[in-house]
Amino acid sequence: MKQYLDLLKHVYENGVDKTDRTGTGTRSVFGYQMRFNLKDGFPLVTTKKLHLRSIIHELIWFLQGDTNIKYLKENGVSIWDEWADENGNLGPVYGSQWRSWPTPDGRHIDQITQVIEQLKKSPDSRRIIVSAWNVAEIGNMALPPCHAFFQFYVAPAQPEKGILKPQLSCQLYQRSADIFLGVPFNIASYALLTMMVAQVCDMEVGDFVHTLGDAHIYSNHFEQTELQLSREPKPLPTMKINPDVKNIFDFKFEDFELQNYAFHPHIKAPVAV
Ligand SMILES: Nc1nc(=O)c2c([nH]1)NC[C@@H]1CN(c3ccc(C(=O)N[C@@H](CCC(=O)O)C(=O)O)cc3)CN21
Ligand SMILES: O=c1ccn([C@H]2C[C@H](O)[C@@H](COP(=O)(O)O)O2)c(=O)[nH]1
Fold this sequence. Notes:
Elements: H1 2-14, E1 16-18, E2 26-37, H2 52-63, H3 70-74, H4 94-100, E3 101-102, E4 108-109, H5 111-121, E5 129-131, E6 147-155, E7 167-178, H6 182-200, E8 204-218, H7 222-229, E9 238-241, E10 256-259
Parallel strand pairs: 7-8
Antiparallel strand pairs: 1-2, 2-8, 3-4, 5-6, 6-7, 9-10
5,10-methenyl-6,7,8-trihydrofolic acid binds near residues 51, 143, 182, 185 and 272.
């Protein structure tokens, strides 16, 4: 995960100190891009232990179109607790926009189903996009989407190079990035989503391209950042997905198995609310 450590170091050493909505204070740069070839292994940060359980459950929860934290709580995931109302609701956040974006004439668009159909029928399309940034609904969301907009790209098979199937890449635009806590989750989540989409479309994986807007380290994560930068990254683990799942909405927690994850000890950090 050199790419991630390079980002952390770049912002820590070159960012500008800036106030922010949470009142914590950040060091920040505007505009940064990372690229992960998903054939090189599963991009899970190794310089601190990451809680993949939370990441997998959160992704399944998004894909079910769910926006209430009940499912997460039932599965021991607490990362969204601070933002939910007394009934566990977050408003029309990711799951709602991904699966049922409301149209002015009263219909709902399932962007995930549309993207899978596009990938199967017209993989050359330059319009294979999911947007969570629904301007009209932002005011009703507990938090405006951070990972706001993503696009898929298919490179055709190249049998002469031994690439027998089309290769699926995904690029995400993340408008605001909490580099110490959020970004390791976001990288793993979109890497996994790309693998899942590739499997149900019978494609190989290509790259995950991660483009950041305001990329920041909170000032109460500086000590943790120095500790993490002092550590040597370890080889990437491998993610095995149950090959029998052919529908993107059928994936269950048990369908994922992480192998050979070598990591440094977990580093605790407070989340800015
Ligand atoms: N400031 C901030 N950073 C974020 O990354 C973030 C938000 N707010 N608000 C909405 C979601 C919630 N996300 C979160 C929230 C908490 C952790 C966190 O505390 N992670 C710990 C423990 C993980 C666990 O309990 O599974 C970590 O060490 O990674 C991570 C992502 C990502 N988002
Ligand atoms: O998936 C996520 C969700 C949230 N974040 C971070 C980025 C910011 O630190 C906060 C959101 O605050 P805003 O004032 O709305 O930008 O949450 C993340 O990194 N990844």
